[in-house]
């Protein structure tokens, strides 16, 4: 009978150890995690917390032995302190204010990479990003005090704004205009998309007391409703204008009760015109109807270890990426669209929620 020496096991053992290190330990816990719904039982659930991620590993990336052999590029580091984000064509763009880069999560490939251009288009402190339908990227950079514009392939195109002219906190785009939240001048600057000429500012009447802005930090465009929503952190309110700058109404006012704001930040609008507003002080996301009436809030601390937000900054609504997160939806439920929320602290840096369809 053929005998095997201890040395013949060395390559086999070494290979197994190497594969184990590259693929990760598979100590699977078969116990399913409880689902987190908002509002909690016994109310009818409308929103489900699905998952959270700070790196591509949490989106399902696993380095294989083939990756090791082919020398695939090292994956991007986990997010440190995310702020603004945008979702476009199966990719999630997240501004990391500590790293000074935009981390791009490719949902199809479960891969993360850095968008960190050099030269004339170099980022300093990207705080918010908007991606147009054609893939053009608009980045509000408070380090450069400019809006930086890049093509779909990341090529730098232009810088909007002269030195010390403004302090951009956010940017939103329509078919023909660019809206910029300007902290320095307490207004929203409106530019033509073609030629990038300044058209007007919002409020259109600088002396007006109704619809006045103190510290405009975040923007959302409701294009079907012809509305611009401006989260005014300094005024503890969300101001609503039409796209020509006419004041329409206010949502909320200063306070710490439901429907009020202590530090409003990110704002988003869904296809029905519902407004989603982040409050960094009370650490919730509140949902309002088109008349400014509170419908629901979610993400509050202490409600659950899963689904809470810690110093939230941005919120975005997305209808196109449901398939990538469908596996997290509770049995018997259907997800109509996704809600992404960034947290600047804690383990759940980008939280993903699903808005549930009616039965």
Structural overview:
Mean pLDDT is 88; it is low at 1-31. The protein is 7% helix and 41% strand. It has 359 residues and is mainly beta. The strands form six sheets. The protein has a five-stranded antiparallel sheet, with no helix packed on it. The protein has a four-stranded antiparallel sheet with strand order 3-4-5-6, with no helix packed on it. Strands 7-8-9-10 form a four-stranded antiparallel sheet, with no helix packed on it. It is built from three helices and 25 strands. The radius of gyration is 23 Å and the shape is globular. A hairpin with a 5-residue loop joins strand 7 and strand 8 (137-141). The protein starts with 8 loop residues before the first helix and ends with a strand.
What would a concise description of this structure say?
This protein is mostly beta strands and about 350 residues long. Helix content is about 5%, strand content about 40%.
């Amino acid at each position: 009978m053929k005998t095997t020496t201890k040395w013949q096991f060395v390559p086999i053992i070494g290979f197994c150890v190497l594969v184990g290190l590259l693929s990760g330990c598979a100590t699977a816990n078969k116990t399913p995690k409880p689902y987190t719904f908002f509002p909690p039982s016994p109310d009818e659930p409308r929103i489900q917390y699905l998952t959270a991620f700070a790196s591509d590993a949490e989106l399902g990336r696993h380095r294989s032995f083939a990756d090791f052999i082919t020398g695939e590029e090292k994956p991007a580091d986990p997010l440190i302190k995310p702020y603004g984000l945008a979702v476009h064509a199966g990719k999630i763009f997240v501004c990391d204010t500590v790293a000074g880069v935009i981390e791009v999560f490719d949902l199809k490939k479960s891969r993360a990479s850095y968008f960190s251009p050099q030269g004339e288009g170099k980022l300093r402190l990207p705080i918010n990003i908007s991606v147009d339908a054609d893939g053009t990227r608009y980045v509000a950079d408070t380090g450069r005090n400019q809006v930086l514009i890049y093509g779909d392939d990341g090529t730098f195109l232009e810088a909007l704004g002269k030195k010390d002219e403004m302090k951009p906190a956010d940017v939103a785009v329509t078919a023909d205009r660019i809206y910029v939240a300007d902290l320095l001048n307490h207004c929203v600057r409106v530019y033509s998309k073609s030629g990038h000429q300044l058209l007007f500012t919002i409020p259109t009447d600088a002396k007006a007391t109704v619809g006045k802005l103190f510290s405009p930090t975040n923007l959302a465009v409701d294009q079907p409703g012809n509305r611009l929503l401006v989260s005014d952190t300094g005024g503890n309110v969300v101001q609503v204008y039409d796209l020509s700058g006419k004041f329409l109404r206010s949502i909320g006012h200063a306070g710490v009760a439901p429907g009020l704001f202590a530090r409003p930040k990110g704002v988003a609008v869904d296809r029905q015109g519902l407004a989603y507003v982040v409050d960094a002080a009370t650490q919730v996301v509140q949902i309002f109807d088109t008349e400014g009436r509170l419908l629901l809030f979610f993400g509050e601390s202490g409600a659950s270890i899963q689904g809470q937000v810690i110093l939230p900054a941005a919120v975005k609504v997305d209808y196109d990426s449901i398939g990538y997160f469908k596996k997290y939806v509770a049995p018997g439920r259907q997800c109509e669209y996704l809600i992404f929320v960034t947290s600047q602290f804690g383990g759940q840096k980008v939280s993903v929620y699903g808005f549930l369809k009616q039965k």
